[in-house]
Amino acid sequence: MPSAARRRRPAPGRWTTAAAGALLLAGCTSVVPGAAGYAPPGAAGHVVREPCPRSGFECITLGVPADHTDPGSPTWNVTFALHRGTVDSRGVLVTATGGPGSSGIAAADDRLAGMSTAITDHFDVVFFDQRGIGRSEPFRCDRTLGADDTEPLDATSTATERDRFAADATELARDCFAEAGVDPADAGRYATSQAVEDLESFRDWLDADQLVLYGESYGTQFAQTYAAAHPDRVAALVLDGVVDLGIDDQTFAAETAQAYSDVLAATLTGCDADDACAADAPGSALDAYDALAAELAGGPRSYDFPLEDGTTEERELTLDDLRSAASWSMSDPWSREQFQQALNSAGNDDAVPLDRLADASYGADPQTGEVVDDPAFSSGLYYAVQCADYDVVPAGSTGRAQLDRWLDGARTAGIDQARLGDIYYQDLPCLFWPGTGAPALRPGTAAALPYPLLALTADTDPNTPTQQAQRVFSRAVGNAQLVVAQGGPHVVYGRGDTCVDGAVETLVTPGQLAATGVTTCPGTVAGVYVPNPPTDAAGYTDPVDVLDATIDASLGNVAYTWWDGSGELAIGCDAGGTVRYELDDDAMHVALERCEWTPDVPVDGSFTVADSGAGDADGSLELPFAELTFDEGSGEISGTFRGQPLD
After folding, report:
1. Following DSSP, what letter does each residue of 519-554 receive, concatenated?
2. Taking a C-beta distance cutoff of 8 angstroms, is the pair 239, 456 a contact?
3. pLDDT tens string 241-290
4. 3-state SS assignment for residue 475
5. Segments making up each domain of the chain, as ranges
6. Where are the beta strands (DSSP E) in 109-232?
7. N or C: which end of the chain has fewer CB within 10 A?
8. Rg of the chain taking only CA atoms, in angstroms
9. pLDDT of 182-222, one tens digit each?
């Protein structure tokens, strides 16, 4: 029988926020007196309380100054989601999510589910939409950024190309603010130093003496900024995927570009060392990546992409597609394993899995290629926060002069020779973003902290490289712990690693660090490799091969694993035919119609997977050389294989 132990089957939507974001603005609205007193909506200090679209949360919207340094500024609405301790309340845990640009309220249900009952029973848990996203004065310019065709730069770009980029980036920023309906003079209002004062207003409304702050990724920047501004209001600080505020944006970009490239190399080297992965690869995986990159640098690869109606259309795989799929896959072990599979498929002349990964990285519909805006994330707000937080154009300089400095730095560091070095150039638009009128304020790097600090990192974190957590930890004196997850993902808490989760829960619940110094949690760079389907019919040597290949290909398909689980999903199988998915309360139902995961091996039939797609499967399949009925739970297979009956 297929080995369920070696096959991962994530429930659809596990990593997708779009479905949650679609519910963001649902729900009723009522105005009632709050702890800070009642004021009409739109007035400073007003409070609106209402049920949240998140399970068990109450949404509290506060009227706060748009500019906390100017009491006469307009009032903005900022919304917090509050989940009361189900038994009692011994404190308040606030989660600041990543980005910048993400909706904390959209992520609330998934993040809460990853917390132990020791926390949710006894702590009030808070998520929030930072100013600029969701319910909190959204700043969006999706059309402008989606239509951006600015030519990318590298260290070899000419002066003329740099001048053109400067002009295009200036126009992009102007159009972004126009689409968002925001005066560029107000750009500084999106800085983290402003946003943390919204949280301080909420803490005051909640009448909480202190907060336990948990920040993930950019949220660590938010949490550190709040802690620097209000150290007496912090009971404990947990930083997960740590941003080092002691470095500038260019240094951050260089470290990140190198980390992405290093994690890619570790992922592919790991494939060579894994028997199952190496058996799928046409030689060294690292060599295969470099060979494909070299091929695509000379021009795109054409191939037939399968549509859900069983037909195909000609598409092209580009070098940008390869790099985007690779970088997008490096943030966790499960996605790294998916990339290993897709690269191995491309090495065997099947570019479809890489195409699907590239589409996912762009946020594009896998059938049409159309980019779908994510209501739970704003790329415009990413730039609005990032560009306000870093002093990228010092007084007396210009964006154009700093552009030369960035590109000269790329040449010195050899950025363009790194496999994923293009990450370095992501924040270049900030050089031409509207100025804040004052240098960006960065909190100091205090050593003797008045609260315990827990820093969490993975030694394979490409987004916030592990050396940043190490530096932040090294500056703290005594009352600090660094937890390093070997081979782990970007953001390590709440993913089922008891070594990591235990450290967080010990700090939050008893209020003390589990240990001081450095704690190492063992792990692997990539998940357990699941082989791709055989390249031809001869590769199916017994009924178990048929079931393994069909179930694994159906449930490991990128379009399925990133589906939000709503309605019915229909996709084209790699070599032809269609597979359909439908989720009910108890199980995932999969139907195959002439579905070819292997060329010239059509599969018809259906199977059902228990536990919403994460459990055992049972069903019936028909192939040119097999008719099989199976039940993983009981271990039974019946039917025929290559003309022979099965017991």
Report:
1. EEE---SSPPP-PPPPSSGGG--SHHHHHHHHHHHH
2. yes
3. 999 999 999 999 999 999 999 999 999 999 999 999 999 998 999 999 99
4. helix
5. 260-362, 540-646
6. 124-129, 211-216
7. C
8. 26
9. 999 999 999 999 999 999 999 999 999 999 999 999 999 99
